[in-house]
Design brief:
heterodimer; A: 309 residues; mainly alpha; ABC transporter involved in vitamin B12 uptake, BtuC; 14 helices; globular; B: 353 residues; alpha/beta; Rossmann fold; 2 domains; 7-stranded mixed sheet; 6-stranded parallel sheet; 11 helices
Chain lengths: 309, 353
């Protein structure tokens, strides 16, 4: 029995580890889309964050500085989306793809000198006494700061979005920028903040991946996780609380893909490798009925992006 | 999506690296970044060796070129700019290189790891599985759980050879040993490789190795979790000062010098050139401090036997996963057979996809 509990716990914590970078992007993108703007560039912002975070950690030896720099890099790149979408009124999808390609290319180029560098990453919490808690202690002890920070940001974001006046405006901008304007508020500052916040979270996600989780930098190391996150925003129904189960869905499938192999389960690795994409897709399809009926929580302002942009 | 930029960068490199003074221009094409600390890094070290040791040679290179028609355009562009010897260094470049070779009969091609040749295309590779076999011996003598872990990208012959050689080496000194394999379905996905390493260790493996683009990820996880690691492609000992055992690494430089010199003096021939431990194209890295003196002595003795050709890695009996004899006692697999390997040996856990 204890063996099974340990197996399940180790699967759950493995899922949490792989889900963390995705979760951070999902949270950021939920906030962006809640203002009526979609940003596919998060993939590129994540890569810039990963590269910058790794580089700064390698140079300064301080992973916290790396994380801060990664957030800055994500914000800087998201400003391209700000200028194109808010400044020039460009198509949001096209602008997002441009940002994605830009981030991929820039990070690959500027990251070259840092490949094969060894960095000092965060210590896990194992040394702080948490590790001695029976059963779950060894797993809790193995978690790292970025996992905790990402989890803490869920209630913070929810409080802001649902319990503050600014959060109310933020959401109303996403529902209809016209009405917001008629009420005497400009939607632009909110959308600006929303895109920049998405940049911060995806930059942070990059650092979680490169500085904390793998302690390694390789070009295009996000391997599509940013785009997966944009898809998971729909699964999470634009709700920060649902972001956690949505991202865990991805994390569990990825962990399961690898663990099933180590347990010797007789399934083709190619089929297993599709799990992290297949399972969210199935959940999306199953919840589609609900989505159609109640709008699925999609900010109405987003409709404009898909219909007449 | 990364192509336009890399081609732009590569063309600036192209412009600066060719000088009119050179007599022989040699071009390299890499499938990944030359700084990947793995396969492409090793090939590029060969290119640098070539530049250093042959004064009349100029080199240029293109990175991140996918294994499709793009590589043909890249090679043609190199040739039009005066390149006389082309090194298409990735396995999947072979058919494209053959097409370009037919179009430019005066240019010489040296493809890495293929099994086809033409009038002006040869192949070169090294039997690095000899080094993996020796590393397997070190792993088999060091493991306490008798479980080894192998993180593999794709089930191509080169990868299967390494899994099998590593396992056979380990079982030659410790028949209790099994190797668990996890496939990541990609040459470079750090997050997946780290998680695969965690899964193997959770499952009891206490020596990790692998065949993905760079050994950094699994070596780092192994060190963090306090287990041993064996590197591949490049020496990653600095990432695991405690748990590093040994690694199998490439040394392409001297072989590339031989190929270029043979073109220059007219002795070039269309052939499958293969290096090994003896020629030095495949090598065993230095041992880590975790390896006992007994283990080192055993590995060195077996290395000498392989170098003296008293022992061959692919000599029978070789038993498959299902217990059936694949190579009978007294028989040895030929080069062609090993380079088309499509089975896993007894002692490997995990299936061929």
């Amino acid at each position: 029995m204890e063996m099974i509990i340990i197996e399940v716990l180790s699967l759950l914590f493995a899922a949490l580890r792989s889900a963390t970078p995705v979760l951070a992007v999902v949270l950021g993108e939920i906030m962006t889309q809640r203002s009526g703007v979609i940003n596919l560039g998060v993939e590129g912002q994540m890569l810039m964050g990963a590269m910058t975070g790794f580089a700064v950690t390698a140079i300064t030896g301080d992973p916290w500085l790396g994380v801060v720099a990664a957030c800055g890099a994500g914000i800087l790149l998201s400003l391209v989306h700000v200028v194109l979408v808010l400044g020039c009124g460009a198509n949001q999808i096209a602008s997002g793809i441009a940002v994605m390609i830009l981030g991929g290319g820039l990070s690959a180029y500027y990251g070259i000198p840092f490949v094969g560098e060894k960095i000092n990453s965060f210590d896990s919490f194992g040394g702080s006494g948490i590790g001695s808690i029976p059963l779950i202690g060894r797993f809790l002890g193995a978690t790292t700061p970025t996992v905790l920070l990402t989890l803490i940001s869920i209630p913070v974001i929810s409080l802001f979005l649902y319990r503050t006046r600014s959060g109310l405006h933020w959401r109303s901008v996403g529902e209809s920028s016209e009405i917001t304007r008629n009420l005497g508020h400009s939607p632009v500052p909110y959308q600006f903040a929303a895109i920049v916040f998405g940049g911060l979270m995806s930059g942070f996600a990059g650092a979680a991946l490169a500085v904390d989780y793998t302690s390694n930098w390789v070009e295009h190391m996000t391997a599509g996780r940013g785009l997966v996150a944009v898809g998971l925003v729909i699964v999470a129904r634009w709700n920060p609380w649902y972001a956690l189960p949505a991202a865990l869905l991805f994390g569990v499938s990825e962990a399961l893909n690898l663990r099933l192999q180590s347990w010797g389960v007789d399934v083709s690795q190619y089929l297993l490798a599709t799990l992290p994409y297949l399972i969210p897709l199935v959940v999306l399809m199953l919840s589609f009925r609900g989505l159609k009926a109640g709008g699925g929580g999609m900010p109405m302002g987003l409709k404009a992006v898909f219909t007449n942009s | 999506m990364k192509k336009p930029l890399s081609i732009l960068l590569a063309s600036t490199l192209l412009a600066t690296s060719i000088s009119a003074m050179a007599e022989t221009k040699v071009g390299f094409v890499y499938v990944g970044p030359k700084s990947d600390y793995g396969y492409n890094y090793a090939q590029d070290q060969g290119r640098l060796y070539l530049e250093e040791h042959l004064e009349d040679v100029e080199t240029l290179y293109f990175e991140n070129i996918p294994e499709n028609a793009d590589v043909q355009r890249v090679m043609e562009r190199m040739i039009r700019s005066g390149v006389e010897i082309v090194f298409p260094t990735s396995y999947g470049y072979l058919d494209h290189a053959l097409k370009v070779a037919e179009k430019y009969p005066d240019v010489h091609f040296a493809h890495s790891g293929g099994l086809k040749t033409s009038d002006n295309l040869m192949t070169y590779f090294a039997e690095i599985d000899q080094a993996m076999y020796l590393a397997g011996i070190a792993a088999g003598m060091t493991t306490e759980t008798n479980k080894l872990g192998f993180i593999a990208a794709h089930p191509i012959p080169q990868v299967l050879r390494n899994i099998n050689a590593f396992t056979r080496g380990a079982r030659s000194v410790n028949p209790e040993v099994t190797t668990s394999v996890i496939w990541t379905s990609g040459w470079s996905d750090p997050s997946k490789e780290s998680e695969a390493a965690e899964a193997l260790i959770d499952n009891g493996a206490d020596v990790l190795t692998g065949h993905v683009d760079s050994p950094i990820n699994y070596v780092q996880v192994a060190e963090e979790r306090g287990v041993y690691s064996v590197g591949y492609h490049a020496d990653a000992s600095k990432f695991a000062p405690e748990g590093w055992l040994v690694g199998a690494v490439w040394n392409w430089g001297p072989m590339m010098v031989d190929i270029v010199e043979s073109v220059e003096d007219g002795t070039w021939e269309s052939q499958h050139l293969r290096g090994d431990l003896l020629t030095g194209a495949a090598q065993l890295s230095d041992f880590g401090s975790a390896v006992s003196d007994d283990t080192i002595a055993e590995v060195e003795e077996r290395r000498q036997m392989i170098m003296d050709e008293e022992y061959q890695v692919w000599a029978g009996p070789i038993t498959g996963q299902d217990g059936k004899v694949i190579v009978a006692e007294g028989d040895t697999m030929t080069l062609q057979e090993t380079e088309k390997m499509d089975f896993l040996v007894e002692g490997v856990e995990g299936r061929l996809p």
